[in-house]
Specification:
32% strand; alpha+beta; 6 helices; 4-stranded antiparallel beta sheet
C-alpha cells in the first residue's frame, strides 16, 4: 500500500523518517487555469485520437514507466512495465474512450499525451516524449494541443501530476502555463 502526505504536514513526514518508511517520490501537482487556443506547429505532426495498435506505443510507455514511482520502488519494479502497458491500453482503447494525442516524425511515434476527465475536471493521464526526440518542441506541442482541446471543450483548467525530481517534465509544464499548487510525499509500505 502507499500513503501520500501533504508537504505542509512536516510532523507526519518526520514520523515516517523516524520509522524508516521509504520515501519513494515527491509528487508535484500542477494546474493550468489559463486555457487558450494554440496554433499548431507546422514542423511537428500531432494526430488526435487515431486508431493505434497499443504495442506501437511500448517504447515510449516503457520510458514513462522508468520515471515513475512504481519503477523506483524495487519491490514494485518487476510490475511497472506491465502496469503502464495496461494503463495505455485502457487509455487508447478502453471502454470509456478518453482523448489522446500522438506526435510523429515520418511514421515513427515520438510522443504521446492522454487525457482523462471526471465531470468538469480534466487531467493529463500519461505524457511522454521519446528520449531521442526530446528538446525539439514535441512536448510543448503535445501540451499545447491538449490545452487547446480543453479550451475547445469548455474546461476551466487542466491538471497534471508528476514526480518533483522529473525536471524535464516540470520545465515543459511550467513553460506552457502550469503552476505547482501542491507537493505530496509518497511512501510505499510493504507488509
Amino acid at each position: 500500500t502507499y500513503i501520500q502526505i501533504d508537504s505542509k504536514n512536516t510532523e507526519l513526514i518526520d514520523y515516517c523518517k523516524d520509522k524508516k518508511i521509504p520515501l519513494i517520490s515527491i509528487r508535484a501537482e500542477l494546474i493550468n487555469k489559463k486555457l487558450s487556443q494554440y496554433q499548431s506547429s507546422p514542423s511537428i505532426t500531432i494526430k488526435r485520437e487515431i486508431k493505434i495498435i497499443s504495442s506501437k506505443l511500448t517504447p515510449i510507455i516503457n520510458q514513462i514507466a522508468k520515471t515513475s514511482r512504481f519503477y523506483k520502488d524495487l519491490n514494485f519494479r518487476p510490475y511497472a512495465f506491465k502496469l503502464y502497458d495496461t494503463w495505455i491500453k485502457k487509455s487508447v482503447s478502453g471502454q470509456k474512450k478518453y482523448p489522446f494525442f500522438l506526435s510523429f516524425e515520418k511514421d515513427k511515434i515520438t510522443g504521446l499525451l492522454t487525457l482523462k476527465y471526471d465531470d468538469d475536471k480534466l487531467f493529463i493521464d500519461l505524457f511522454g516524449v521519446d528520449k531521442k526526440s526530446r528538446k525539439k518542441g514535441i512536448g510543448t506541442a503535445l501540451l499545447q494541443t491538449a490545452i487547446s482541446w480543453a479550451f475547445e471543450h469548455k474546461f476551466k483548467s487542466l491538471s497534471v501530476s508528476t514526480q518533483k525530481e522529473n525536471s524535464n517534465a516540470i520545465s515543459v509544464y511550467t513553460k506552457t502555463g502550469f503552476t505547482c499548487y501542491k507537493e505530496l510525499y509518497q511512501y510505499h509500505l510493504w507488509i
